[in-house]
Amino acid sequence: MPERTHSTPPRTLAEALRTRDDASLEALLRARPDLLTPVPGDIGALATRAGTRASVIRALEHLDRFTLQTAEALAVAPDPAPYPALLALMGGDDCDPVVEAELPGAVGVLREQALIWGADDRLRLVRTARELLAPSPTHPSPTGLGPTVAEATVGMSPGRVQEIVTAVGLSGTHDSVSAVAALTALFTDRQRMSALLDEAPVESLNVLSRLVWGPPYGEVTADPTRPVRWLRDHGLLLPASARTVVLPREAALHLRAGRAHRSTEPRPPTVAPARDYGPQAVDAAAAGQAFVALDTIEELLKDWNEGGPAVLRSGGLSVRDLKRTAAALDCTEQLAAFWVELAYAAGLLATDGGGGTSRALKATGDDERFAATPFYDAWLESPAQDRWADLVTAWLTATRTPGLIGGLDAKGRALSTLGPDLDRSAAPEVRRRVLALMATLPAGTAPEPESLLARLRWERPVRGTTAGRGAGQSSAADIAAARYSHGATAVGDLRSRIAQWTMNETELLGITGRGALATHGRALLGGAEPGGGAGPTAAPTSAELTTARARAAEALAPLIPVPLDHVLLQADLTAVAPGPLERPLAELLGVAADIESKGGATVYRFTGGSVRRALDAGQTASDLHAFLATHSRTPVPQPLTYLIDDVARRHGHLRVGAASSYVRCDDDAVLSEILADTRSQSLRLRRLAPTVLAAQADPGELLEGLRSMGFAPAAESAEGDVLITRADAYRTPPRSAPVPVPEGPPVPDDTLLGAALRAIRAGDTAATVVHKPVPEQGDLPRTPAAETLATVQAAAMTGAALWIGYVNADGAASRRVIAPVRVEGGFVTAYDHTADDVRTYPLHRITGVAELTDDPA
């Protein structure tokens, strides 16, 4: 291979990459981590992978709007394109100074990511990107431009080409090639093109105005109108098919004053403030909502404490169970789905796999169902700020997207809560970016939602919605995603919908208050500069996430109200909790009374049924009296004392057991009263003895039936003891939180980047530099063991390639070219260029080493 000099322009992308230094290649691999999976063998393999369709699509989808517009302009520019030609396409005849100032940065990003290569006088867009962005009859350009005159006249008869040349006032030529070149020169000459258009009828100019910004294609009849016929005769409309014409690119650029795009956006839109509420008001509102979020999650899992709904055969929660859960939480079904998904993402609930653990009286059966996990019990014992931090950290990193619930998947099936197909890998990045953009505003200031969405759309535009793109050009995945949302802002703009959901969810979780980011919400971003760059916020490492979580919990702690140890009893059989209660008090009060209303203060009401529920749970009348006297700041009202004593006096007077079931009572008059009551007919009772009645109903049905008649029976064991019907917790086997689905390969760390670059450089050296013949197999390098170890270690640090003599386990000797990556434990791990693979060799089997550039003989 002939040696290249720095003055010789690169002829391929691989040659351009070889001229880069390590820092530039590291930037490429960080921006496009998919190129490292697996590690390329040399620069040529890296260039090939960088030009594959999947990799180029991923890279284009991560460009901001202006950089993508720059790539789109290069797709319709001559190949190669000098920088002035690109600037003319981006800025037009009257170039905006802002475009001129920002264009070098966009070109630098494209060059860094290996989407373009070559010097500024010969900019080349990689072939795959040009194919994706360049116009064609089935794929109009994002710029709205059509094919060139040369491309549009392919297949046209020479006579027809000569007719067009003559019609526009040009001299006839001997061949079609020169005729097309003359027509192209006319359309690119501003003065002559203006003179030609001055001759056009007004109606013809109106036709051109409808095509100039795209789509450039139009249908014509067999007998076109006079304006269309004039355009066709003068080559301003060229045939694309039997009934379709197209506006040539050169003519469209003249009509656009040289611009490839109707409008360019060289700088990101700013996030506008909506209203300043003040930091204290925002923090107070957010902290209050954070406490509501914790209370809602506890209420949800308390409702599922004895075993939640069954799992659908296709996975997920049924619509009926979601409605019941929404009624229990007193919220909408969509909001209930969000809380359920949040508890699932935090590892607080999961499926039991048909084998949960419970000590409950009634078996739950073998059907798979949702239930709280063992982690939930430990979570309940944590301080409120730590529990909140667990929830928001899980939400921030989860790829499951509750906003999709209720929509349809790509196959038209309904997406259910806790079901499959809810993962969207872009969700964590969008959530963090929304918080980062909110953090750019002063503390206590809420952003204008539409300006925030506009900024996000600039940072990651949807392919197919840039200026001039024709309808129907979105990808199939984007179109399918659009069906998930109700009232989407743009076809396929899933990121905008996730951002809208994020703004609502941050308010529900107490990360924001009144739409503004709270102090503890800012702490979730860690030490990163909020909104410091135009691009997306990088995903945090686990250590950074742990630190941010601790900071957020610490910031929230002073804002969380201290739990109270008292209530206010009132004469109307109600108890008022003026704030959050300590857990033991809240749990017992929740059993002995019914919640009547919530808000700043919770109102509990004592009824005969609630008192009986407390007695069924093992409490006695004296326990309840002592409990109320201890925890009430007001005297215990006499009506409440009488209610407890009256229910306790009748509680357990009747005993129910299994015969199928039976009722026994020491007072035979009570049993006679039951038999005489017409409401007992459904229980099919009969007297077995003066103090015993038998029933064909099961014990549970008999208990409920007698209670509905106004009695207070107690369940009885086989030994005659009263059964305490405390609701034992039903828990799943140990389960971990769902693992987020990554958007792509993770960004490599410094260690992996260094090792990969050494392997790539060494492989490229072996492929392009080494020209010496391999010596005979018997002539192996011979070096002492200490020298061998030192040379290999030095090569691992510098990235140098080595010849080694190696003897395998069978005694066969060979020579190999390796690029050492790591030396430890008596082994060397290296990229073996002979085998084109990464291998590990025992050092004691290496007979010797020699520098690659040295003469091994």
Walk me through what this model shows.
The chain is of the alpha+beta class and 857 residues long. The protein folds into six domains: 121 residues, no CATH class; 107 residues, no CATH class; 277 residues, no CATH class; 83 residues, no CATH class; 67 residues, no CATH class; 102 residues, SH3 type barrels (Roll). Helix content is 43%, strand content 12%. The protein contains 34 helices and 27 strands. The strands form nine sheets. The protein has a five-stranded mixed sheet, covered by helices on one side. Strands 26-25-24-23-27 form a five-stranded antiparallel sheet. Helix 16 packs across helix 18. It is elongated.
Average pLDDT reading: 83
Range of helix content: 40-55%
Determine the number of helices (DSSP H or I, runs of at least 4 residues).
34
Query: Count of DSSP E strands?
Result: 27
Shape: elongated
C-alpha Rg (nearest Å): 38 Å
Q: List low-pLDDT spans.
A: 1-5, 358-365, 464-492, 529-537, 770-778
Give the secondary structure arrangement, pairings included.
Elements: H1 13-18, H2 22-31, H3 43-50, H4 53-61, H5 65-76, H6 83-91, H7 97-112, E1 116-117, E2 124-125, H8 127-133, H9 149-152, H10 158-167, H11 176-188, H12 190-198, H13 202-211, E3 217-219, H14 226-233, E4 238-241, E5 244-246, H15 249-255, E6 273-276, H16 279-303, H17 319-329, H18 333-345, E7 349-351, E8 357-358, E9 370-372, H19 374-380, H20 384-397, H21 427-438, E10 445-447, H22 449-459, H23 476-482, H24 494-509, E11 512-513, E12 516-517, H25 519-523, H26 542-556, E13 568-570, E14 574-577, H27 583-592, E15 594-597, E16 602-605, H28 608-616, H29 621-631, H30 638-650, E17 655-657, E18 661-664, H31 668-676, E19 685-689, E20 692-695, H32 699-708, E21 714-715, E22 730-731, H33 750-768, H34 785-798, E23 802-807, E24 813-824, E25 827-832, E26 837-842, E27 846-851
Helix pairs in contact: 5-7, 5-8, 10-11, 13-14, 16-18, 17-18, 20-26, 21-24, 22-24, 28-30
